[in-house]
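Here comes just one.
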Amino acid sequence: MPEEKQTAKNLKIVPDSWEQMPRETEEPEVCPTCFGTGMEIVPGKGARPCHCRRQDAHSRNLESVKIPKRYAGCDFPFYEPQNETQRTAFNFAWKLAMEYPAVDRGLLLTGTVGVGKTHLAVSILKGLAEKGFSCLFCEFGSLLKEIQGSYNSNTNTSEYGVLAPVFNADVLVLDELGAAKPTDWVLDTMMHIINTRYNDKKLTVFTTNYPDERVNDREETLEDRIGVRLRSRLYEMCRTVVIEGKDFRRNFDKFSRIKKANS
């Protein structure tokens, strides 16, 4: 009897059906270089952070920039200048991205719609984010609505929570400056944001559709939209770069057909 009990104890219980079979847990994919340690050994040089960690950090950094999906493909190599003003704007944007942080002023990219202002601004952010600088993209109208939304007692955000990343980013793009109707609240909010970054010597890149010079009596200038004080401040903060040209979106169907034919 003791021997039979011992034998029974040593027997394994066999499942009656497939449903009772133990499931193998799916193992997470492990980097073949560092085997999940995050450090790779370089012969003769010691240890350094593995490329998998650097790639993860790069992806997280780009996500934190909050570039809209619409502009995900905007990079310097894909900007094709069509005239001298666009080539000049490209050179200024490229130089800023290459020389930062050894630069004193940002850029104010001004011009009509569809001349590539946002493309160049996003290209700057991408280039600097890849170097490890904290960058942020904000469409000005959306930012104002987000601030207004923070005043709602039913939300979990605050005005400071919305503005802190705007204040703290090493490089900020404020897209569509002047697009919002210039109420007293809008002007005060713009002054607060821009003045804070000005005092902290933080680099800012602006884009706007509004010119400095009035072409006709009906056209508004940037000064009309943001006020005399703010426009004066921007002269010191940024180099003004005027971009001219036709709206590239007017030929969007044509370019799409050419791209499809060549693919």
About this structure: Residues 32-65 form one domain. The chain has two domains: 32-65, 67-254. The first helix runs from residue 2 to 10. Residues 139 and 175 are 5 Å apart (CA to CA).
